[in-house]
Each structure stands twice: as C-alpha cells, then as structure tokens.
Amino acid sequence: MTQAAFFVLTALADQPRHGYGILREVEEVSDGAVQLRVGTLYGVLDRLTADGLIVLDREEVHEGRLRRYYRLTDEGMRALDAEAERMAAGASAAKSRIAEGRKAPGAVAKPSAGPGLAGGVA
Amino acid sequence: MTQAAFFVLTALADQPRHGYGILREVEEVSDGAVQLRVGTLYGVLDRLTADGLIVLDREEVHEGRLRRYYRLTDEGMRALDAEAERMAAGASAAKSRIAEGRKAPGAVAKPSAGPGLAGGVA
DNA sequence: CGTTATATATCGGAAGCCGAGATATCATGG
DNA sequence: CCATGATATCTCGGCTTCCGATATATAACG
C-alpha cells in the first residue's frame, strides 16, 4: 500500500468524506506533514475503489457544488488496520535501531578501524 | 521518503551493511512483511547516497566475493528518526480513527437510521 | 471583473518499483 | 564434471504511481 492510499483510508476511518474534504483532513491529521496532492487523490480513489477498500457512499449538492462522499468497506478497515500495524512495527524497529547505533557505534566487533557512525554522532 | 528508502535506512541504523545483507536484514526486521527487491535496492542506494543520507563505508572481499558496505550519515540518522516519528504518528492516528469509526458508526449526527460503516450497507 | 475558496476531473512528464537477466565465486550433490 | 543454489554485484525495460498544470463550475469578497 502506498503512502497516499494509507492516508486516504485514514481520513475515511472515522466517517465518510468527499475528495476535497479528504485533502484537508489528511493535512490536518498529519499536522501538515503530509500534503496529498489533487492530482494524486483521484487516482488513489479509483484504485482503492477497484480494490474494494472504499465505496461511493453518497452524493450531495452543497451550495451548488457537488460533493461525492466515500467510505471504508470492511475490507478497507481491515487493510488500514493491518497497514497501521506494519507501520507502527516499522517505526518501532527504526527507533530501537537508532538507539542501538548511538549506544554502540563500534559494537560491530571491530575495535576502532571503524570510525563508527558519523564520528560519534554528537 | 519512500517505503524502500525507509527500510534501507532502518537496516543500516545499527551497523554498516552491504547490499545483500540489507536485503536479508529488511526481511528479518520486518518479520517477512517487507521484501525489498534486488531491482529496487541499487536505485535506492544511489538515491540515498546522492541525498547524503548514507555513504560507502568500506569494501571487503569475503570468500572471493566483494562486499560493499554502506552506513548512515548524521543526516541519514536524523532523516530516519524524523520519518519514524511521522510513521508512528500516522499509525497512531489511523488506529484511533478506526476505533472512533467502530465506536460510533452513526456518530455523524444520525441517531440510528444510519447503518454506518459496514452496518447495513447492503 | 478578478481573485480566492470550494469541488470535481484529466493529462503527461517524472520518479520509483520490480521481474528478469548478466556476471562471478564457492559449496553441495549427482 | 556439471547442475544447482546461495552469495554478491549491477543493469535494463515495463509498469505503476506521483504530482504540477490545466480545465470546468459555483459562490463570496473586494
């Protein structure tokens, strides 16, 4: 699953949303760290629909503008859950490894030959 | 940062490794969930080097076979740390949203009629 | 009337992924 | 002796995905 797809699913996890709403929600939920582009969105939406992870929930007309709402399917919910698990595990692994690398730069069983990472790391 | 790049950095976080070793390490650290392909690896290695996140540490000849070791730079370490943070946050956000969606499928200001997610759908 | 915000969607270039193949050494097995 | 498999490097081409730019349309603000 791509990053974009993950964040779209996340934005839809609590309630159905329309395209433009997903765009804003992703930015907000990621605290501005992730900016889903318009050009990316619709391709992702199509793929997720084709994969059965989301479905068109309903269409509304708000102030003369069409809003097309999507929502997660059971399968989409499960896929997101599994992906979140993998991401958490990956993040956790990276964190503990960083700690290891900082704690023992020369723990490679090599006395000194190895200058260690970036010279002491600080 | 792409998934592939993230896992390469993670594999290098505790100690320098060579290409083939990274391949096995990524699979092991992700418990088989992530399989970095050979065709992907070298492109990632080149990009990470160009971006200054990793550097060629040393070259060794082991049993007649060349081993090219890479290691993280300070910048690479920081980038990995930041990315791990973002991933953890993303995973966490997804998790709590899933909980919200399950807890209140109709929390959309809809008493009960709302079949909500996966409820009635059909 | 022009710009900004909301809202949809498409197009094409660029970036990235990955199966397949090339090359080479060493060990195992037939 | 040769085939196979593991180790180890790297390249190529097709496919998927990303994203800037563009198009269309309504409403609000100046």
UniProtKB/TrEMBL annotation, chains A, B:
InterPro entries: Metal_resp_DNA-bind_regulator (IPR052509), Tscrpt_reg_PadR_N (IPR005149), WH-like_DNA-bd_sf (IPR036388), WH_DNA-bd_sf (IPR036390). Residues 8-81 form the Transcription regulator PadR N-terminal domain. Pfam families: PadR. It comes from the Bacteria. Residues 99-122 are annotated as: Disordered. PANTHER family: PADR-FAMILY TRANSCRIPTIONAL REGULATOR (PTHR33169:SF13). This is Transcription regulator PadR N-terminal domain-containing protein.
